[in-house]
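Section 3.1 - Work completed
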Amino acid sequence: MAIEEYFSKPIIEKIATNYYKNENRLDAHFVGKDYDVAIIGVEECINSVENRSCGDAPNIIRKQLYALQSNFKKLNICDLGNVKGNTAKDTYAAVKDIVSELAEKNIVSIILGGSQDFTLSIFNGLKTRQPKLNVTIVDNKIDLGQDDHDFHSHSFVSHLLNEKQLRRLEMLAYQSYFVPENQLDFLKKHNQCAVRLGMVRANIGQIEPIIRDTDLLSFDMSAIKQSDSPAYLYANPNGLTAQEACQLSLFAGYSDRIKTFGVFEMNPDFDRNHQSAALAAQMIWHFLEGLNNRQKDYPIKSIDAYEKYIVQQEQLDENIVFYQNPVNNRWWIEIPNAAGEKEIYACCRQEYEESKSGRIPDSWIRYYKK
């Protein structure tokens, strides 16, 4: 099946607003062929828990997105339209096939949801092209569900954890009053990590290395506080700010590994003055800004091209090896896995400095023998 047959194509000229009447507006830069980025709408929400109208979000986000200015001279962007399927099962399969084909062509996909359970379909599409995948999910809760046989937007993570090709899962910005201890224990049992909202907000710069390693970032808009993003039935007073959501999106764009960026669960029925739609559009804009300014670092470039630092760590009774790109001051750390092989993880300079003072780096604790 040709990829074009999966879509009911929106007409960009009718969707775009007219806030800026000049040729530098984002929608004026869309191309039909030889593109680097593909925007895809998913209007399906049958498996969203109490947030069914989120399926109406894609075109509403587009109205805000196409009004923004384009500064992305290195990117050719195409909107493939909205995925069409007679059933939810059809749409899951279509998203999987579309993402897989785009990944094969090294085209980054941006998914406008729709419900967040499509994260699993995206993963299934990417895994056909890559043996091991790193996934980052931004959410105020951990969607593990209660029953392994049930599948919906609040249970898809448990299905994701059963995937053999999942190398690493990072849950960012969860709020403890929404997450029972047994869920955190379950993640730990599966050697996966979760970072509380407070830790994300305390030093958001230290989240960049986590996202730098990701292949797929799935962003639930409920992770953003109500005053900044009201478009959710159970929007919460606490959460990420709009600026922090855009910062995390920018980090995702900077990643040289990123294949797909998805924004989910925005419910237009609860939006005020298109506030959440505008924020979702600006998050995508920041993601594009990051893509436009990627550094082509590791893993595109060999880790041996960087400066190497060896630190004797007495607590571990072995050396820790760090690498630095002196051009942009990005850092990586070498950590042994369960098989005794050395793996490379992104880290920050602070971890190098802490290691020199005798402290075990956070990344080592998170990923040692993972």
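Second construct:
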Amino acid sequence: MQLFTRLKGRFPALRLEKEFSFSHHTTIGCGGTAAVAAYPASLEESACLIAYLIRERIPMCLLGAGANVLPSEGYFEGVVVLFRLLNALYADGAEVYAGAGVTGGSLLRFACRNGIGGFSPFSGIPMTVGGGVAMNAGVGDLHFSDIVRRVVCVERGRLCILDTAACAFGEKSSIFLQGIAVLGVYLRGRYAELSSIVQESCYYRTLRARLPKERSMGCVFVNPPGESAGRLIEACGLKGKRIGGAVVSVLHANFICNEGGTSGDIAALISLIKETVLRRTGIKLREEIRRIP
């Protein structure tokens, strides 16, 4: 309550929420509670808020759609910053600007209406553009690093624009995972016929339809070079392995499903998988998910 009142006094127009539940705002459906959630509505408000939190040494956590993350249990005496109100979308030719809060579905529908292709591989991925850029989301055919031209962000409390080279994109990683907040991004599309866009989108949605439907974080581990993390986990006999309410999916071994478990259950199962795969294959799996806060 004290932190909420403090922020409300400093930012009277800022949308705030008390007692933010991680379990209600993440796809894995577990985790504790944060004292405050903040929803800045503009680039300037976002930069001012983050600068204030840094200056006052108030702990913060940046959250997109809540997919591909494992929240901690317990109480987070800090601020969860969500950019869902940064939902601007416009096109300049085949280049699209999308605010960090734009969902993958909204981006695809906008591009389709404007005859812009090149984004179809993102079909069906639960994400916001901000989170997708930060984690370099994508599939084998396309990642954000392939289409990002410039990123509007907040670095050390200041608004700035980074070109692709400065984003340090890697396999499911970027410079933005080091506490730099993505506020918007310019994406390179291409002109395409509506029928072609729809056909491509349907193809990728069909592929994703084969994935587990239970509560999960998506793929837990990055595929090692020339290998499949799911195949390695399955080869180690871990499909269906359970700790508490966390279970390795029998449909896709790189998914951990939450059947009423805690963050501790899921973290313990992740550790068991990593230890088992390393012991039996010599391969060290790297987590694709991000642990918060």
